[in-house]
Amino acid sequence: MTFALPPLKYDKKALGFISENTLNFHHGKHLQTYIDTTNKLVAGSNYEGKSLLEIMTSSSGPLFNNAAQSWNHEFYFNCLTGEKKEPTGKLLEMINENFGSLDEFKQKFAAAAVGNFGSGWTWLVQTGPNKLKIMSTSNAGNPIVDGFTPILTVDVWEHAYYLDYQNRRADYLKDFLEHIDWDFVASQMRD
Q1: Does the annotation list 26 as a binding residue?
Q2: d(Cα 21, Cα 136) in Å, to the nearest integer?
Q3: DSSP 28
Q4: b vs e for 65-76, b when ≥16 Cβ sit within 10 Å of the residue's Cβ?
Q5: Does 179 count as an annotated binding residue?
Q6: pLDDT digits (tens, 9 = 90+) for 83-127
């Protein structure tokens, strides 16, 4: 199995808060490099023919880093939309139950992401049937390796926002929280 750059589900001009220029670099160059490197590292190894998820959960070192970054980025890009959406149904119930309200969730998620030191990811994960938790990982970290189900992530590596926001990570987070594809997030939940 050779991995390929997944297409974005929206036009590069559609998000509004992230520029086409940033997406050209972030999706078209950064993610492409992770995918290309994963393909090179997998070729001729015991990982050949395995999915990114299988590789990510059973490898270490450079292979883990590149496979996880490939998986993380694809997931992140799927969390975004140019349309204004709100969570509904079971997802909204779980957010209210675990965080008090959608606004309180957004405040806590933004605070965790702004406070995520250095490069990494901040996640909303499902830890049980009705349990949600916010967690941050460094570098290529992914909550799946710790047994959690990610349902939302934000990339806080500087390349995700620096061309548009420079050092204003908090502003990036504020705008990110208004461009979440809650339908995608809900589709990642498990019973």
Answers
A1: yes
A2: 27
A3: I
A4: bbbbbbbbbbbb
A5: no
A6: 999 999 999 999 999 999 999 999 999 999 999 999 999 999 999
